Every structure is written in structure tokens, then in C-alpha cells.
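Have a close read of this protein, sequence plus C-alpha cells, and explain what the C-alpha cells say about the fold. Thanks in advance:
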Amino acid sequence: MKWFVGRDQMDIDGLGEKLIDQLVDADLVHHFADLFTLERDDLLGLERMGEKSVEKLFEGVEAARSRGLARVLAGLGIRHIGASAAKTLARNFKNAEALLAADFDTLEALPDFGEITARSLHEHLASEPARETFERLAAVDVSLESDLHRSDADAEPAIDSCFTGKTIVITGTLESFGRKELGDRLESLGATITGSVSKKTDLLIAGEKAGSKLKKASDLEVEVWDEARLLSELPEA
């Protein structure tokens, strides 16, 4: 539950770890969906929860309903599915219903989805608890639609960029960017950012102390750029 509400997941402002503990201890929350059915009177009875705190929490919960499929998937704690993999899924499936209908081969073909990740995800999605979770979230009006998905019919014009269509991994420390900032920038230029190097990786961007990902990229003969090369290729913002 604490992971689900975190900044990089559902980002529910006003819902910290201590409050989660109180909600669970008070028997008010047993499932992710229960967060979206909390009543004002229930919250006012908790420690350090006055009118302003309750209002802030309700605003955060309401905002979280519309975060979309990628954030939901990132928050559910599915094995091998972090923020990067969740975005990949949201780009390729328009909603949870389409994702639940996907077969193993379709999942394995996704960028950065090898056999292990695809098998684990496919088995999870086929389970009764997973399907119940999606049903319960939908029942409390949590959006399971993807704002990252583009069909062939409504796709935006291709971005004129050397990063377009590339599957890219970022590793090490960069002077000019934080890794999340750079990832967002490259995604805006048409790239897909993933967290691990595989045979499907097109490019590794390696900063200082790149470590094992750099070695794996070398072993797989993946193209590697340092920060200087990256800066020379990035278009002006």
C-alpha cells in the first residue's frame, strides 16, 4: 500500500507511511481500492488528521483517480514491472482490458520484455487476484485507460530525431541531467526507455560509474554513448 501511493506510482499527496499504518490498524483499508472509498468521518478520528489534512488527502485521492494505466501498473507491485516496464505496457495497450487479453508471445515481443518477465506477467494477469484488483479499481472510478497509447490511426507525426524508435537504457551518473529528466526528454523525442540491457536494446547511454550494464552492453555489442556524444546529438530544447 505504501508503494502504491508513492510519488512515482499513484502519487497521493497527503498519504504518508504513518497514515497508511493508521488506516490499516483501524481496519479502514484492506485493498488498494479501499483508499478511494474513505469517508471524512473515518479520517477525522485518526491522529493528526484535522479538517485541513483531510481535505488535502481527499484532493490527492481524487487526483490519483485519473493518473492512468502506467501509474496503476507501476504501483501494484507486480514482479518485474516497475515504472519503465509499466510505461512500455501503457504505450502498447490502450487499457487494462486490452492488457489482460494479451497472450504470452505478445508480451515477450515488447521492448525489454524477455521470456522471464513476459512469463511472470502473463501468469500474474491470468490470476484471480489480479483480475479482481483491476475490477475493484474500476468500480471506484480509477482510470485504467492509457494516456501513452497511440493507435496507428491517431498517431502523431513521426518526430525527426535520431532517438525515434530506439530502445535506450541510461546508466551511471551524468553531469547535465538526472536520469529521470533525461529519460523524459528522450521519450519526448520518440525513444523507449527501459531499465535493463538486453538483445532488444539499441543504445546505452553511460555516465560515470556505469558498472554492470556497460559490461553487458559490450558483451551484446550494443552501441554505447558517453555524455559528450549524447549532448552532441540532442536537439536544442
The two ends are 38 Å apart (CA to CA).
